[in-house]
Amino acid sequence: MLELLSPAGSMDALKAAVQNGADAVYLGCGTFNARQGAKNFTPQTLVEAVKYCHVRGVAVHLTLNTLVSDKETDELCNLIRHAASCCVDAFIVQDLSVVRLCRQIAPKVPIHGSTR
Q1: Model confidence over 44-93: pLDDT tens digits?
Q2: Is residue 1 predicted with pLDDT exceeding 90?
Q3: What angle do CA 100, 50, 21 make, to 5 degrees?
Q4: Least CB-packed of 36, 60, 69, 70 within 10 Å?
Q5: Alpha-carbon distance 67 to 58, whole Å?
Q6: Contact 18, 52 (CB under 8 A)
């Protein structure tokens, strides 16, 4: 199955991707993503983004593709919990320790590897 996966660095970009036929979008929330040049989403706007996409049959993949230090673990765990409660469709991950945390906190959310 072919899937059109589009980046969404802001709510405007997300809406444009959805309205132009994206099957899924990937986006960053906070600082645990390599998309620091994008506007990115906050925990509050992540909720809105997931609702907007899911109503329209579009999946949301959250990028967690940075290397994470021990001192950032609690903040990352909170973001993983929040993303799972928002019903994101997948995580895109680079750091194997982040994979472990995602599996522990949100075992039903699929994980994809990042090429970054």
Answers
A1: 999 999 999 999 999 999 999 999 999 999 999 999 999 999 999 999 99
A2: no
A3: 110
A4: 70
A5: 28
A6: yes
Identify whether the C-beta of residue 60 lies closer than 8 Å to the C-beta of residue 88. Answer: yes
CA distance 3 to 11: 21
User: Is pTM, for the whole model, over 0.90?
Assistant: yes
User: What is the residue whose two structure tokens read 């599996």?
Assistant: 103
Residue 106, classed as helix, strand or coil, is coil
Question: pLDDT tens digits, residue range 13-40?
Answer: 999 999 999 999 999 998 899 877 778 8
Count of H helices and E strands in the chain? Answer: 4, 5
Q: What is the CA radius of gyration of the chain?
A: 13
What is the C-alpha to C-alpha distance for residues 113 and 9, in angstroms, rounded to an integer? Answer: 19
Which amino acid does the sequence have at 34? Answer: A
DSSP track, 3-55: --EEE-SSHHHHHHHHHTT-SEEEEEBTTSSS-TTS--B-HHHHHHHHHHHHH
Encoding tokens for residue 1? Answer: 């199955």
